[in-house]
Amino acid sequence: MKMKSILHLPSQRFSGGFSLIEMIVAITVLAILSTSAAIFLRGPITSYFDTERRASLADAGGLAMAKLGLDVVGTTVTGVTVLSPPPGGGFSFRIMAPPANVTYTCDEASRTLRRRANGQNNLLAEGVWNCQTRRQMLPLLGAVPLGGVIAVELNLRSEDAAGRDMGDRLNLVRTFRVGPLQ
Amino acid sequence: MSNKAEFITHDERGLTLIELLVFIVIVGIAATAILGVFGSLTRNSATLLPEKQAQAFAASKLAEIMAEPFVTVVSRYNGSTAMTFPDNSQVTSLPGYRLSISVNPAVVITSTPAAAGVIPAADRLLVTVTVTAPNGTVSRLRGIRIR
User: Does residue A166 sit at the B interface (CB-CB below 8 Å)?
Assistant: First the structure.
């Protein structure tokens, strides 16, 4: 008998349904919870995409500079020929470091840095909005010419898939000697 | 039947206002702590790029010093704080970054005296490049320049 009475209990209680007040309270509580969740989750979600974008920008720039470093370090660069830059601005130069001759071209119009060697033309970096080379002839030491120094400067920015500027900036410079190290 | 009556009375007593307030305060404290962690994560994620930029500039400065003729390294770079490219033009794209360079005689730490004798003390320099980012992140790179 006791069991039966308990089984009857739910239907007796729920047949009354919600009152209007209960509904309004529930809706208000849900509204407060979802608003606060939206406000507080927005920051971390934005942060995730920012972090990802900055990490890939830093990676791309670092890899391009590492590649240039491999071409000029551990070998003697006997000469650098400055070629005419792309029409949209930028630079192009050829590194003579026997046995390899490597050409780097930065095109500010397409915002790319490319490396050409052994018939291959590889894309090294994207989002290069400004790039230049800076040359300095080192002073004479006595009667011995000391050669020169070339600095390659890249200003990178992060872009979305459509090539729009996403606001992050990275400035990278790589300096190397032309002629033997003194 | 008396059993049923007792059960219902117990079930419908509900919460007192005090109990409800205590619950709200506890949940509030917990939520504030968790959201505070999210907030600090968000702020700190922004420090990635200045740190990378400081490291990149320190590396480029060290490469520049390594390319300098040995005899002019000390006079040109020791104590220098100038944010410049190798051609002495000013770096304008890094506002708020600070640079300091020191060049000292390099102490070669080695357990074998014979190896230490390979490069005379006068022919080695310890170059330290320190770059401080606008957010206070310090990147310090060292290199030994030999002749």
Answer: no
Contacts of A89 (CB under 8 A, 6+ apart): A107, A108, A109
Phi-psi region of A111 (alpha: psi -120 to 50; beta: other; left: phi over 0): left
3-state DSSP of chain B = CHHHHHHHHHHCCCCCHHHHHHHHHHHHHHHHHHHHHHHHHHHHHHHHHHHHHHHHHHHHHHHHHHHCCHHHHHHHHCCCCCCECCCCCECCCCCCCEEEEEEEECCCCCCCHHHHCCCCHHHEEEEEEEEECCCCCEEEEEEEEEC
- Residue A101 distance to chain B (closest CA, Å): 21
Distances from the Cα of B13 to the Cα of A122, A139, B4, B16, angstroms? 76, 94, 15, 9
ipTM summary value: 0.71
* Test mutation, B2, B42, B65, B88, chain A, max A CBs within 10 A: B42
pLDDT at A146: 54
pLDDT tens for each residue of B29-40: 998 898 888 777
Question: Mean pLDDT per segment of 10 residues, for chain B of length 147 residues?
Answer: 53 80 93 83 72 90 87 90 86 90 78 62 88 91 87
d(CA A72, CA A176): 7
Q: Do A51 and B56 touch (CB under 8 A)?
A: no
Percentage, residues of chain A above pLDDT 90: 25
| The pLDDT value given to residue B108 | 63
State how far the alpha carbon of B133 is from the alpha carbons of B49, B55, B89, B95, B103, in Å. 10, 9, 20, 9, 21
* Residue A73 vs residue A162, higher pLDDT: A162
Of B31, B52, B87, the CB nearest to A170: B52
B90: nearest CA partner in chain A? A134
